[in-house]
UniProtKB/TrEMBL annotation:
<dbReference type="InterPro" id="IPR029039">
    <property type="entry name" value="Flavoprotein-like_sf"/>
</dbReference>
<protein>
    <submittedName>
        <fullName>Class Ib ribonucleoside-diphosphate reductase assembly flavoprotein NrdI</fullName>
    </submittedName>
</protein>
<dbReference type="InterPro" id="IPR004465">
    <property type="entry name" value="RNR_NrdI"/>
</dbReference>
<dbReference type="GO" id="GO:0010181">
    <property type="term" value="F:FMN binding"/>
</dbReference>
<dbReference type="Pfam" id="PF07972">
    <property type="entry name" value="Flavodoxin_NdrI"/>
</dbReference>
Length: 110
């Protein structure tokens, strides 16, 4: 299954790189409207007070019909807002929240 990810600080990118997955797509400012025609999961960080990054929101507006799950990165210092973007996406699109991990994850997470 394709893994689509967005990394604004590099943490999610490092996490994805450690998984050694081949079928990935990194969301950036130029491809948020790119159509994905196969099932995928999305991995994203959380910004502000538990918000979904704007590029991820734009991407999902175009591609939510193939979204199968979400994983989110965050910083535990944010308390209840830790990796909350994952919770928001899961609720908005009725998909499972697969995992939350801190920053770029650890060996157990990948």
């Amino acid at each position: 299954m394709k893994v689509v990810f967005y990394s604004f600080t590099g943490n999610v990118r490092r996490f994805i790189k450690r998984t050694e997955l081949d079928n990935t797509l990194e969301i950036n400012e130029t491809n948020t409207l790119e159509k994905v025609t196969e099932p995928f999961i999305i991995v994203t960080g959380t910004i502000g007070f538990g918000e979904v990054p704007q590029p991820v929101q734009q991407f999902l507006e175009c591609n939510h019909e193939n979204l199968k799950g979400v994983a989110a990165s965050g910083n535990r210092n944010w308390g209840t807002n830790f990796a909350k973007a994952g919770t928001r996406i899961a609720e908005m699109y009725n998909v499972p929240l697969l995992m939350k991990f801190e920053l770029h994850g650890n060996a157990h997470d990948t």
